[in-house]
Amino acid sequence: MTVTTYATLPVLDLVRLEADPEERAVFLDEVRRTAYELGFFYVTGHGVDPELIRQVLAHTRQFFALPEAEKLAIAMANSPHFRGYNRKGQEYTRGQQDWREQVDFGPERAPLPDVAQRHHADLLELPEFRPQV
User: Fold this and answer.
1) Where are the alpha helices (DSSP H) in the chain?
2) Could you tell me if residue 85 is left (phi over 0), alpha (psi between -120 and 50 degrees) or otherwise beta?
3) Which residues form the Non-haem dioxygenase N-terminal domain (predicted)?
């Protein structure tokens, strides 16, 4: 497999999914390769309202500006589904410590029988953030 060198993050247009089967296959291969080799890319052609994108970015900034103790109220370590907040230095990629914060969201599912029933995201003081994302 040849590895591509990236000077900037690629921009992948989802409209190509609606193209003829050959172009669709080329696009899907590009998504697969970019996700595997680089792990990040921009997406266009998704149809998401620009105002919603603006709101999500605003709430994201608001969330990460909270005091650490508030963010830790939804710590991933307490989640039955590996969702929630991780502070800087808590994640590792290829054996290297990552110096980034993150918050993971996902679908609601019934917790495993031995896990508390209350969803930890209910503790977050930004009630509109989770449903919006």
Assistant:
1) 21-37, 50-65, 68-71, 129-132
2) beta
3) 9-110
Closest CA to 80 of 107, 123, 115: 115
Extents of the domains making up the chain: 11-44, 66-132
Pick the closest to residue 35 from 68, 4, 67 (CA basis). 4
Q: What is the pTM of this model?
A: 0.61
Residue-level pLDDT, tens digit, the chain, 133 residues: 566 777 899 999 999 999 999 999 999 999 999 999 998 999 999 999 999 999 999 999 999 999 999 999 999 888 877 888 998 888 778 788 888 899 988 877 777 665 454 455 555 566 777 677 7
State both tokens at 69: 């103790």
Structure tokens at 79: 């989640």
